[in-house]
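Hey, can you fold this one?
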Amino acid sequence: MVGCLGNLYESLENLYIQPNQEKDILLKPKSAQGAASLYTCSSHRSYVAEDPRAICPSCYGSMSSQLNYVKPAAGNNVVASNGGLVKGVVTYMVLDDLVVKPMHVDVKDVGVLKEKVVTLGMDEMLKTSLQSKHVLTSVFMDSINE
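Sure. Predicted structure:
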C-alpha cells in the first residue's frame, strides 16, 4: 500500500481484543449512510430484496414496501463491560508511520519533557497517510508553518 495507511490497519488488526469483542468494528466500520435500501412484501415480511421490482416467492406480489433502518440507542455501543475493546489497561502510542504500539517510555528525567497540543485535521491526515511514511511529522510541520 502506498504511504503508511496500511500500517494503521495492520496495527489495529494485531491489537489484543477482549473476548466477545469483534475487531470488525474497527477494521470494517458500518454506516447507515450509503447502506442499500431494502424492500419487503407487505404480506410476507420474512423476505427482503434490494430491488423494489423483485417478486415475492410466496405470493408473487411486489416487494415494494421499503424497510426503515433504526439506529441503535447511544448507550448500546459494542464495548466490553470494563470499558473498551482492548484487553487490559494499556496506553498506546501512535508512531510517525501510523504504527500503533503499547507505550513503553524510558524517560529518566520527566522535567525535560514538553507538552504541546496540536489540532490535526482528518482530511490532512488521510491525504498525507497516502503520500508519506512520516505522517505525523508532515502534518505537524505543516500546521506550525501556517
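The first helix runs from residue 5 to 13. Let me know if you want another pass with a different chain boundary.
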